[in-house]
Write a structure and sequence with these properties.
This is proline--tRNA ligase. Its EC number is 6.1.1.15. It is an enzyme of class 6 (ligase). There is one protein chain. It is built from 14 helices and 25 strands. With 508 residues, it is α+β, with helices and mostly antiparallel strands. It folds into three domains: 262 residues, Bira Bifunctional Protein, Domain 2 (BirA Bifunctional Protein, domain 2), CATH 3.30.930.10; 98 residues, Anticodon-binding domain (Rossmann fold), CATH 3.40.50.800; 78 residues, C-terminal domain of ProRS (Translation Initiation Factor IF3, 2-Layer Sandwich). The strands form six sheets. It has a five-stranded mixed beta barrel with strand order 11-12-13-25-24. It has a five-stranded mixed β-sheet with strand order 18-17-19-20-21, sandwiched between helices. Strand 20 and strand 21 form a beta hairpin. Helix 2 packs antiparallel against helix 6. The longest helix is centred in the C-terminal third of the chain and has 27 residues. The chain is globular. Bound molecules: ligand 87F. Ligand 87F binds next to strand 13 and strand 16.
Length: 508
């Protein structure tokens, strides 16, 4: 991929000057050509990800971690308003405690990673690495909760978890170790728990739609797809048009009293009577970054929504011919300073061993929303040239209006990315009524909205009938926003009376 460009380039005074070899930039794969290869290339070339020598594990570089930090800053402030407290529980869990959850852990068991040795000696008993922290936390909930005055208990932790997946690992999307926040809460009443499930789901929608500019549908999971340990599961679901696959963006579960029973988490109510608590758990992960990359990236690389861009504006000097390089450097410097002063994340690329053209490609690859070019003509006219990453638009802006104009442009890019993604997603939605329409839509990579009888057996049957190389179809969610369901509408798969509209499709 990385071939080198010729060594000589014109220097400042028109003389031929040796410039350090520049690595050629660019993407070998196209988004509409080979999507999988394109995605790997984008996350690596944009310097978000470095591959690691353990399959399914990736190095998250600053360009990814800074996005994660921006999301975290928003989410953490919001949950603190909801009285969530920060905790950190250990990474390890004993077999004994993990097994307390054995009913629903059964299906997950193959993904649990174990520590069996220290140095050369076998541990007395193997210790599991947390795949999620219910079993780590809830024995202590049982200890800490005594009376109704101890409720609600609201814990959140930001941490890593390990799930030893075997199917096709993909950076951010499916990795064996990932970062997340996990919220675990306990209430005296179901009403309080129900309310929180939706408050958190709304925050997840905002992460995707307002920050990552990715449209999602809020809805409820089917009995087959819900978290088996809980009462009901809600989620935000995104869709990747290129692969025709749905992808779960985040989940917010009401656990009911199942874990309270298992872990004996009870409280004495005002009347002195023992009751079991009502619990929730919820999480979003670094997968969200991958969904954003897939949604907005293009053939030049990453495209970042301004709200999550570590650098929103990159300033590049264009000192060609006999230009006054000192004055240009000064203008770049003061442009960055002015923007930073107004809270805009701006930086300049001062490297002298790269040409302006190389820098343009480099920062396009990294998806920076705005590029400011400053050359001799701009200097003379007291203006700068601004280039938008999303649509390539170029505008010349008087320096006096700089901050306002940059704010307007960043805002427009944020809105346009969301709007474009929403239009693309909506164009993939297909309402179907019959099995034939369903299979055709599935083959056409559609996000299918179908009338369904909501029976588990029927979902199993659909899975079985659509099994194949690309994976079976399943329900993604039943969206809260339901179109009208006319009396007498039949289930597309069973022919029984339909109870609801649900999203179906292949998924990640
Ligand atoms: C993998 C191995 C072992 C998912 C697993 O969604 C256990 C599990 O319990 C497991 N994969 N799950 C379900 C996780 C449920 C729940 N946990 C807290 C969440 C949100 C955060």
């Amino acid at each position: 991929m990385s071939t080198s460009k010729g060594g000589a380039a014109k220097g400042g005074g028109g003389k031929k000057k040796e410039v350090k070899k520049e690595t050629k930039l660019g993407m070998a794969y196209k988004k509409d050509g080979n999507f999988g290869e394109w995605y790997s290339e984008v996350v690596v070339n944009s310097e978000m990800i470095e591959y690691y020598d353990i399959s399914g594990c990736y190095i998250l570089r600053p360009w990814a971690m800074e996005i994660w930090e921006l999301l975290k800053e928003f989410f953490d402030a919001e949950i603190k308003k909801l009285k969530l407290k920060p905790y950190y529980f250990p990474l390890f869990v004993t077999e004994n405690v993990l097994q307390k959850e054995k009913d629903h852990i059964e299906g997950f068991a193959p993904e649990v990673a174990w520590v069996t040795k220290s140095g050369k000696s076998e541990l007395e008993a193997p210790i599991a690495i947390r795949p999620t922290s219910e079993t780590v936390m809830y024995p202590y909930f049982s200890k800490w909760i005594r009376s109704h005055r101890d409720l609600p208990l609201r814990c959140n932790q930001w941490c890593n978890v390990v799930r030893w997946e075997f199917s096709n690992p993909t950076p951010f999307i499916r990795s064996r170790e990932f970062l997340w926040q996990e919220g675990h809460t306990a209430f005296a009443t179901k009403e309080e728990a129900d309310e929180e499930v939706l408050q958190i789901l709304e925050l997840y929608r905002r992460i995707y739609e307002e920050f990552l500019a990715v449209p999602v549908s809020k809805g409820r999971k089917s009995e087959m797809e819900k978290f088996a340990g809980g009462l009901y599961t809600t989620s935000v679901e995104a869709f990747i048009p290129n692969t025709g696959r749905g992808i779960q963006g985040a989940t917010s579960h009401c656990l009911g009293q199942n874990f309270a029973k298992m872990f004996d988490i009870t409280f004495e109510n005002e009347k002195g009577v023992r009751e079991m608590v009502w619990q929730n758990s919820w999480a979003y992960t670094t997968r969200s970054i991958g969904v954003m990359v897939m949604t907005h990236g293009d053939d030049k690389g990453l495209v970042l929504p301004p709200k999550v861009a570590p650098i929103q504006v990159i300033v590049i000097a264009v000192p060609y011919k006999d230009a006054d390089t000192t004055a240009i450097k000064g203008a770049c410097e003061s442009t960055v300073y002015t923007l930073n002063q107004s809270g805009i994340r701006a930086d300049q690329d001062t490297r002298e061993n790269y040409s302006p053209g190389w820098k343009y490609s480099h920062w396009e690859m990294k998806g920076v929303p705005l590029r400011i070019e400053i050359g001799p003509k701009d200097l003379a006219n007291k203006q700068v040239r601004i280039v938008c990453r999303d649509n390539g638009a170029k505008v010349d802006i008087p320096v006096t209006n700089l901050v306002e104009e940059v704010k307007v442009l960043l805002d427009e890019i944020q809105k346009n990315l969301f709007k474009t993604a929403q239009e693309k997603r909506d164009a993939c939605v297909q309402v179907i009524k019959t099995w034939d329409e369903f299979t055709t839509a599935l083959n056409n990579k559609r996000l299918i909205l179908a009338p369904w009888c909501d029976e588990e057996e029927v979902e199993k049957d659909v899975k079985a009938r659509t099994k194949g190389e690309l994976g079976a179809a399943k329900t993604l969610c039943t969206p809260f926003e339901q179109p009208e369901l006319p009396e007498g509408t039949l289930c597309f798969a069973s022919g029984k009376p339909a109870k609801k509209w649900s999203f179906w499709g292949r998924s990640y």
